[in-house]
Design goal:
5-stranded mixed β-sheet, mainly beta, 29 strands, 6-stranded mixed β-sheet
């Protein structure tokens, strides 16, 4: 009997191993075929050399030997407050008002989104059914923007910011540096946010909660921050030209240049304020041209990146100048201009905009929950 059970276990172990190997081989073949078709030169593409940067800061793209399997799902959710007046007209683009008016957040295990009528729509993360109980509690005012502030839901109504205490909205007594833009990151010391002026650069701002001072440096344009023992790792990307990506590690933001309140969000001689920071209070961890990295996040003991190259968006590890693809994600373009990634407990939420679809508004989100990645499109399928 014991022998029989042992044989069964060995059989299933062997079957799983063969299935995983087949997936890896299929994954490799898909990527090799794709990059071969993208290659105009007489160069044979291999798994170890899918793409090599022709620019000064060299990097190589390869298929990782350690394929990471994710369960990917794609769904479409309609704006529950849709009105005909938000449809596209020849005179203007009112249809963009059909998308959320501020970047969605995760709160009480729900995706919480704010629409043009100033009302919240909430969707349970386990089923994406409407959480009408939470909606009814929240929708006692009209709101213009929302965030998570000090781990609680915060929202702008009129000229005042309110914080949800679990039962009702109360006026937020402390200063919050944002009005109509998303937050990049927050911890006990700083609220971090940015601005982006495209090819004229961008700035990342660290608002010090204790001193009410704001420190800044150049970041074109910040999309996610991971804090580790070395400090704040600020990732940025820009699609201009061939695209570019950098990560700056800032050990102590208070060593950056101090911003005057009147300077924040402004340009200097036509360029982003960030360029006048001469503190050098950072180290560049990555500086690539010809590739865009939309997001970074922790997965188990790894740091993973959502990379866009040759009209393909995929998941990768980066080891020095080697970009190793670990998962093809949705094997699609999945392009976005100014995304933002935040952590909400066990969840990671990536807000995606796309100028040609919804101007600066969120048109989709990616929700990462362990080995599950869910793409939610607003109103219609935005796959490209």
């Amino acid at each position: 009997m014991i022998k029989k059970h042992l044989y069964i276990l060995l059989f299933f172990g062997f079957s799983i191993s063969v299935f995983t190997q087949n997936k890896q081989l299929n994954f490799e073949k898909q990527l090799v075929d794709y990059f071969q078709k993208q290659n105009w030169d007489e160069v044979t593409v291999t798994r170890n050399n899918l793409y090599t940067s022709p620019f000064k800061e060299k990097f190589n793209v390869s298929v990782s030997k350690n394929f990471i399997e994710f369960d990917t799902t794609h769904i479409v959710i309609k704006n529950p407050y849709f009105a005909d007046k938000y449809k596209e007209t020849e005179a203007n683009k009112d249809y963009v008002k059909n998308f959320p008016k501020s970047f969605s957040v995760i709160y009480e295990n729900s995706l919480v989104s704010l629409f043009e009528n100033g009302q919240f729509a909430c969707f349970k993360l386990d089923s994406f059914e409407r959480n009408t109980e939470l909606e009814n509690r929240l929708n006692t005012k009209r709101f213009e923007y929302h965030w998570i502030i000090d781990k609680q839901l915060g929202a702008l109504s009129g000229n005042l910011i309110y914080k949800w205490n679990g039962n009702k909205w109360v006026k937020y007594k402390d200063y919050f540096p944002l009005k109509n833009q998303p937050k990049l990151f927050e911890d006990d010391e700083f609220v971090v946010y940015g601005d982006c002026h495209g090819e004229w650069g961008g700035t990342v701002y660290f608002y010090d909660k204790k001193s009410s001072k704001t420190f800044f440096t150049e970041s074109t344009c910040a999309n996610s921050i991971i804090k580790d023992k070395n400090g704040y790792n600020v990732m940025a990307h820009l699609g201009h030209g061939g695209g570019s990506t950098e990560i700056k590690t800032i050990a102590n933001p208070k060593n950056l240049t101090l911003a005057k309140p009147s300077e924040i969000g402004k340009t200097v001689n036509g360029e982003a304020l960030g360029y006048i920071d001469q503190s050098n209070a950072y180290n560049k961890k990555i500086d690539f041209y010809g590739v865009q990295i939309f997001s970074s996040f922790k997965y188990q003991d790894k740091e993973l990146f959502i990379v866009h190259l040759s009209d393909l968006t995929f998941l990768a590890e980066i080891k020095g100048n080697e970009i190793e693809i670990v998962n093809p994600l949705f094997f699609s373009d999945l392009y976005t201009h100014d995304p933002i990634t935040n952590h909400y407990g066990n969840y990671i939420l990536m807000n995606l905009d796309h100028y040609g679809t919804g101007l600066n508004r969120e048109i989709s989100v990616l929700i990462i929950d362990g080995n599950r990645i869910i793409k939610v499109d607003w109103n219609e399928n935005h796959s490209r």
